[in-house]
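Thread title: Can someone regenerate the structure for this chain?

I was given the following input by a collaborator and told the matching structure tokens would be attached. They weren't. Posting the sequence so someone can regenerate them.
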Amino acid sequence: MRSIPRLSSRKRRAAGLGRPALQETHWREPLSRKNVYLILCVLGAAIPYSQFIPWVAENGLHFGLLVRQLFANRISAFFGLDVLVSSVVLVVFMRTEGRLLRIRLRWLPIVALCVVGVSLALPLFLYLRERELESSNEAAHRGAAPA
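Best answer:
Regenerated them for you:
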């Protein structure tokens, strides 16, 4: 009995021998990095605010109490200082990278940092960065002469 040679998946698709039922019903495309960053923006705002809003409802916008509770013990101070240092690092990164890539709306993550924190500002900046990289790649492809 003679064996039938197996074709690679690329050759099967090129010959139209792929699995058409799967290809026709394949509705879910993989998420782009840009869309992942947008999802992370939503989570980065919703999760911290799920704790902050009830605290404000209970205590009001009492800044002194917020700072006292934030630094109430060593472990909470560790997290508070970690976020403060991360915020400074993020601002430096966003300013240098934003200028280098000429990212539009690069002020928006700074506002997000002040209003929510690093959890929103970082994915928002990465989204804007990815959007800028995509548009510059598209512009480069349009400007390139066909060979």
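The chain has a mean pLDDT of 86.
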